[in-house]
Design a protein that fits this description.
Helix content: 25-40%
Number of helices: 17
Shape: globular
Distance between the termini: 28 Å
Keywords: Glycosidase, Hydrolase
InterPro entries: GH, GH13_cat_dom, Glyco_hydro_b, O16G_dom_2
CATH topology of the largest domain: TIM Barrel
Number of strands: 23
Structural class: alpha/beta
Strand order of the largest sheet: 13-12-9-3-2-1-15-14
Protein name: Trehalose-6-phosphate hydrolase
Family: Belongs to the glycosyl hydrolase 13 family.
CATH class of the largest domain: Alpha Beta
Enzyme class: hydrolase
Strand content: 15-25%
Length: about 525
């Protein structure tokens, strides 16, 4: 099936924290393989793996030192091959994170590039005699002075993540070879990290400053002329493999920009952070963004739906922490129009980790925020608060398989944060509990598979009345109504010819053609297709 992904639900696995298979304190491929039956029973169709390549892990594997191997912490190439085979045997696809924008400063290519100005790989990276004012997205200058040759190299993120020069055809060929290698290994596609950063303005103009927000506007270091042509080349190459899937992380909250990167001859989908990264629960904003996305996307573009990832706080913490709201958000994600991405642990309600000790923080973005705040004159308390806001460790703690699972992970592992206390929320306790969040996900994913309108149906309408959201999705064979009551008052809805399929509440009032949707209730009904 060429467009299998349109019917699919993906599950993001953060490699070091999902499951330790060899008791060394780090998640790995053998651990993931041991949980494939759990993932199959959960009901997901595709797995997204964060980077597993050899890396110094300055940025948790997004600083790749070798594109053609497996980091020993995660196993061997044989372990990878076995995992791919086992996942495919269960009917699950696998997409993998790939960073085309930059390499680790430890990568052999960069080691050659920095060795001399005359090295054949010098132009594989971006070097200048003098820096401009571009800032790293992690904070501070985006230029690092290299004493060996007396020039500065460019890094959009950490100084250990050195940007490749995509204006050099040799770089492009090398990265296409990387994609071919992993597609030939059997992966079903890629999640392309910060893909809109591949091109920079070759005049290197200074970026302007937004005085109101007191921050730099990244006008010349992303979304530059020529980037869409590169995207089209990547798309054409990858899609030579039947059914290969491309999802892009496009660093923008502008829908007009996002729409340029997906669709015909482009990426299949891009992440929409306007929806996914809403900092706190705001139903008006959430509804507006969903409605606007549907309005602005063309007929071949498909939205993405997600509320957590390895780069942001978990939505259950951002949205108030209640199981009832978590169920409503999950119901919205799994029934609204788009391709859903579940972040590992959200299905059991794992919450954020926050520290009062900077020495326990592992994430480079959080640590850099702390250092920057101290250098700016903040107190240690103020700096720690700023660090916790930026820190991504909060959503990267080990998966809680049972009440003792954290004992299997090492607090000394540099890139895994282990909470001081193990939460009572875990898979084992929820597996046989019909009212658990895990059971809710399983039931809803099962229902989604049974009704094609929930996979590919278009909206007949999408409406909101105060704290009540409801919509109908339909295709040629059926129509499904989804009603979500985020409020504290019951909501009566007049419905003719609808059959109740699913509800989060056992108690409901139904008289004639009127159904009362209770507070915090998610209800799904099937209508007659005439």
């Amino acid at each position: 099936m060429t467009n299998w992904w349109k019917q699919s639900v993906f599950y993001e696995i953060y490699m070091p924290s999902f499951k330790d298979g060899n008791n060394d304190g780090i998640g790995d491929f053998s651990g993931i393989a041991s949980k494939l039956d759990y993932l199959k029973e959960l009901g997901v169709d595709g797995l997204w793996l964060t980077p597993f390549y050899p890396s110094p892990k300055i940025d948790n594997g997004y600083d790749i030192a070798d594109y053609y191997d497996i980091d020993p912490n995660y196993g061997t190439m044989s372990d990878f091959d076995s995992f791919i085979s086992e996942a495919h045997a269960r009917g699950m696809k696998v997409i993998v994170d790939l960073v085309l924008n930059h390499t680790s400063s430890k990568h052999q290519w960069f080691q050659e590039s920095r060795s001399s100005k005359d090295n054949p790989k010098r132009d594989w990276y971006i070097w200048r005699d003098e820096p401009n004012n571009w800032e790293s997205f992690f904070g501070g200058t985006a230029w690092e002075y290299d004493k060996a040759t007396g020039q500065y190299y460019y890094h959009a993120f950490a100084k250990e993540q050195v940007d490749l020069n995509w204006a050099n055809p040799e770089v492009k060929r090398a990265m296409f070879d990387v994609m071919q290698f992993w597609l030939d290994k059997g992966v079903d596609g890629f999640r392309l990290d910060v893909i809109n950063f591949l091109k920079v303005n070759n005049t290197f103009k200074d970026n302007p400053h937004d005085a109101e927000k007191n921050e730099q506007l990244h006008l010349y270091d992303k979304d530059q002329e020529g980037i869409l042509e590169v995207i089209e080349e990547i798309s054409a190459f990858v899609h030579e493999y039947p059914g290969a899937f491309l999802v892009g992380e496009v660093g923008s909250e502008d829908l007009d920009i996002l729409t340029q990167y997906s669709g015909l001859d482009k990426l299949d989908v891009v992440f929409n952070f306007n929806i996914g990264s809403i900092p706190k629960f705001d139903l008006d904003k959430l509804y507006d963004q969903l409605a606007e996305t549907d309005k602005i996307y063309d007929s071949v573009q498909v939205p993405t739906l997600f509320f957590s990832s390895h780069d942001m706080p978990r939505f259950i913490s951002r949205f108030g922490g209640s199981k009832e709201r978590a169920k409503l958000i999950a119901a919205l994600m799994l029934t609204a129009k788009g391709v859903p991405f579940i972040y590992f642990g959200d299905e059991i309600g794992m919450s954020d980790w926050v520290t009062n000790d900077i020495s326990k923080m592992k994430d480079v973005q959080g640590v850099m925020a702390y250092q920057s705040a101290i250098e700016s004159g903040s107190s240690q308390k103020e700096a720690l608060k700023a660090a916790n806001v930026k820190c991504r460790d909060k959503s990267r703690t080990p998966m809680q398989w049972n009440s003792n699972e954290h004992a299997g992970f090492s607090e000394h592992t540099p890139w895994i944060t282990v909470p001081d206390e193990t939460s009572i929320i875990n898979v084992e306790d929820q597996t046989n509990d019909p009212d658990s969040l895990l059971s809710f996900y399983k039931n809803l994913l099962k229902l989604r598979k049974q009704h094609s309108a929930l996979q590919t149906g278009d909206y007949e309408f999408f409406q909101k009345e105060e704290d009540f959201v409801y919509f109908v999705r339909s295709n040629d064979s059926e129509k499904i109504l989804v009603a979500l009551n985020f409020g504290e008052k019951p909501k009566s809805v007049d419905l003719a010819d609808y059959e109740l399929l699913f509800s989060t509440h056992r108690e409901r009032v139904r008289t004639g053609e009127s159904i009362t949707i209770l507070p915090n209730e998610a209800m799904i009904l099937k209508g007659d297709k005439k």
